[in-house]
Design brief:
2 copies of one chain form a homodimer. In chain A, helix 6 packs across helix 12. In chain A, the strands form 2 sheets. A 7-stranded mixed beta sheet of chain A has the order 1-7-6-5-4-2-3, sandwiched between helices. The first copy, chain A, has 474 residues and is of the alpha/beta class. The first copy, chain A, has 15 helices and 11 strands.
Chain lengths: 474, 474
């Protein structure tokens, strides 16, 4: 164990290393070329009896751990959705770790609680969410969506399930599009509805939920004595960033008294751009909304912004106040442990505060517009190369495409070919892409959303993609 | 937004400030004297249009946020249970924030996944947990206990509820002691059992669950057609660190085929001391176990160590693998997103690795023994002062006591008096204690478990307690 003086010396060394890491990040293989369990096997089976010097641990971090990391902050990271960080966020995380505050209740960290309310209100203004929404930071969109389903479950049953458990007639139905995220499945399972009661509605050719199909299904379910509980509409699907028609869906939800949750985990950040505001036309019909500043708003993971209209319903779903948690201010303040699953909470509002203030709204808008520009730029490259095909509209900054040489026409063969191509591309270590399947078609996904991605990275990426495609044998 | 050079300059400044903060931490009021919404009201309603300099944000952090924080890392923090950090943990958190890796799957961070398996195995060895347990880091014990209940729910029904939802006959019963943590209530609600199906069993005079009462209740429930699902035994209750008899409970669970989850959130850390190992006699009868290194093992919040015997049951409860998350290594490696609620995960194994290596087992044991010594030291002070009364055995490092001057005998009056005393003590800002109610008695709780708490802090604390008690008018 080290003392304060030693900590200070080491922390300065760590800062220098972090600065070097960001300076050189471009040069690391984005995804390591490594076989499973090689790192595990190189670690001692037993923990050390006596303390070891920090220098030694740090050296082994660099020698053993670092080469086995996927570099999410690399500008050559184009896979999944980014978990993009930024320097102001990093600085704030240092303070958060130093304070080590446990922000479960107002009393256990008044400033953290009040800053959370303040920055969540800022986000509301920045994204155009209704003033009557209440915000709270959750860890992930998986958790936020689960909170939405649980709150819907309780609110629609007068908090009976919390109290008595499920009854015979409780066949609750949850609806989302065929393209909605797997976290909806997970939440439906956890909430006890049964996955067969998650109804996935067909999408149109741009992968958006078809509202007519939704209404038809709700009616049918009601006729059969089932209880339509919640619709999860997606703003920016994981596969192709399709956005469901919020207003149409909202009107159906109103008509049948169904909770509307909007999963904007990735694309919600784009709402800070006025030109995207139209996507949430009808948002006042929603009951809850989630987007992740830790995805595309430069705030370190974890930071999921969850908003709910009926704050009381949320709190009544989760609140349990035993004696040892009672305090004098009870009821006058927000105790955010009552707004979700966990009791303990990190001070996550601080990094949002640093990010929003350091960038400013304009700075954030600029970054996002650049990412969107880069996506259109890649889109053009795909369109202008006869060997490639675009597979979905580029709504934000995700490009869905595939290699499609003229001489290959069989779908299975094309799927195989693109699967191989993705492996070859990622095995270069120079860039990292991921994939999905869109209506049976194996699709390469490239997201231009990493904080430090510039045109040169995109140029290089496209060159690598072309080269690897040209080198394929088929 | 700042560039890399500016970040480096600022990060060094932040390190200096953090070192000063720890140097002076003793001098901060542990809990701020602040009225609700003062900080909120001092923050701008609107986010800034243009970016602001980090210097300005940092200044306002110091001026506005810091004075409103409860200082969890202060050696004068004796409230709740600690969320104690340490310098090696802090250093690791800097790296974690810098890498900004999203550790959902092996492929998205191989080294993080493999290090997690390695350090969780270390913890197993350090605490004497059975070799056939499988470890995973969760955020909090609330989440871990919820995972246990959900896994029990699915395993006992052949994964039917995940699939089809609850049926008429599904009246699941969960058992814990009258002293078990409120997170059990929360988990029972979320899992859909209904809070009235949480059965709280009476405790003996040392606040331990009485196994005879448990068995009687299980039998009665079976006779009534209800389904005993899970027992949550506590190792170190929140109110008084009572520990339930694991072996007796385990035998009952075996007999009636009931899942046994052990909530050792706080006191589990003490198992690294051989002299406490006896507490988990019978641990091989348990199905799952949780303890929080972020409470009493010097690892920054959040870091909850969850262990489960039947790994397949856990994974089958949570796994959902959509196309965009499939990878070539599927099934050969641990994808920890399938081991819990969230998809996204921070790289939390790193700080455990730093802490265990930097302290060494001996260093950790030394710290814990010191905390336990300090508790016995306070216990002696309480015992030797006729105006005070000890209210529970000091099993680890929590002292439960009250002020009890000879002339006050009425229980309500004593409760009132101690409530006032706690307010007075905490209003000094010099130390921070919390309270509970033990069998109707308002009880002051003092935990000597903060990383940097020394005998001098405890001496000063006791003096303040005595002074404030003497100044009470009654």
């Amino acid at each position: 164990m080290i003392n304060l003086d030693e900590f200070k010396i080491q922390a300065h060394k760590f800062v220098d290393w972090i600065a070097d890491y960001y300076n050189d990040i471009d040069k690391y293989p984005v995804r390591p070329a490594i076989e499973p369990y090689r790192i595990y096997e190189s670690l001692p089976v037993k923990p050390p009896e006596s303390g070891e010097p920090v220098d030694k641990i740090f050296e082994e971090f660099k020698k053993i751990i670092l080469p086995g990391m996927t570099h999410w902050q690399s500008p050559n990271f184009f896979a999944y959705f980014p978990a993009n960080s930024s320097f102001p966020s990093l600085l704030a995380e240092m303070l958060t770790a130093a304070l080590g505050a446990q922000c479960m209740k107002w009393e256990t960290s008044p400033a953290a609680t009040e800053l959370e309310e303040a920055v969540m209100n800022w986000l509301k203004k920045m994204t155009g969410l209704p003033e009557n929404f209440h915000g709270v930071i959750q860890d992930t969109a998986s958790t936020s969506t689960l909170c939405a389903l649980l709150t819907a479950r309780e609110q629609k049953t007068g908090f009976r399930i919390n109290d008595e458990g499920f009854k015979t007639a409780d066949v609750f139905r949850v609806y989302c599009s065929a393209e909605a995220h797997s976290s909806v499945d997970k939440a439906v399972k956890i909430a006890g509805f049964g996955i067969k009661n998650l109804v996935r509605i067909e999408t149109d050719k741009e992968y958006r939920l078809m509202a007519t199909g939704l209404e038809k299904m709700i009616k049918k379910d009601i006729d059969q004595g089932k209880k339509p509980l919640c619709v999860v509409a997606t703003l920016g699907t994981t596969s192709s960033t399709a956005t469901d028609p919020v207003k149409e869906i909202g009107n159906i939800c109103k008509k049948y008294d169904v909770w509307l949750h909007i999963d904007a985990a990735y694309a919600g950040s784009a709402l800070i751009l006025p030109e995207y505001r139209g996507l949430i036309k009808g948002i006042e019909l929603a009951d809850s909304f989630v987007f992740n500043p830790h995805k595309w708003l430069f705030t370190n993971f974890d930071c999921s912004a969850y908003f709910v209209k009926d704050k009381k319903a949320l709190v009544n779903t989760f609140q349990v106040v035993p004696e040892y948690l009672k305090s004098a201010d009870y009821g006058r303040v927000n105790d955010y442990c009552d707004w979700g699953i966990q009791l303990g909470r990190r001070f996550r509002a601080l990094k949002l505060w640093f990010v929003i203030r350091s960038f400013g709204i304009k700075g954030l808008q600029e970054k996002l517009r650049k990412h969107i520009f880069l996506a259109r730029y890649v889109e053009e490259k795909v369109r202008s190369d006869n060997n490639f095909e675009l597979l979905a509209p580029v709504n934000f900054n995700l490009i869905c495409f595939r290699f499609k040489p003229a001489k290959v026409t069989d779908i299975e063969e094309l799927n195989e070919l693109n699967m191989k191509l993705l492996q070859k591309i990622n095995n270069t270590g120079k860039i990292y892409l991921s994939h999905t399947i869109l209506k049976g078609v194996y699709t390469l996904r490239m997201v231009t959303g990493q904080t430090n991605t510039e045109q040169m990275h995109v140029d290089r990426a496209w060159k690598i993609i072309q080269e690897q495609a040209a080198s394929l044998k088929f």
